[in-house]
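The material for today's practical consists of a large collection of protein records. An example says more than a description, so a record of this kind follows:
***
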Amino acid sequence: MATRRLRPMFVAKRSYRLRRLRDGARMLPFLGAFLYVLPLLWVPTGQTRDLARDAVYLFLAWGVLIGLTALIAARLRAAGNDADDPASAEDAE
């Protein structure tokens, strides 16, 4: 019987983390849409809206989305720069 070469059960940590960062970047628009619709859901029927509170919330949500995007972009950029490093070639195997 010929022996089959066994593939590793898990992928390298670096490539796994890169994939999860990319997945997180792809989910940000959906998170943003949810955060922007959320103020419509929290006002009970029959009450008036507090537009000042809603405006503050929307700007805070916008700031959080910008911060998350900057963080993910910086980590992806750093990971891309590490890919050019020959010392990290062992992770690619």
Observations:
- The chain is about 70% helix and 0% strand.
- The helical segments are 13-41, 51-83, 89-92.
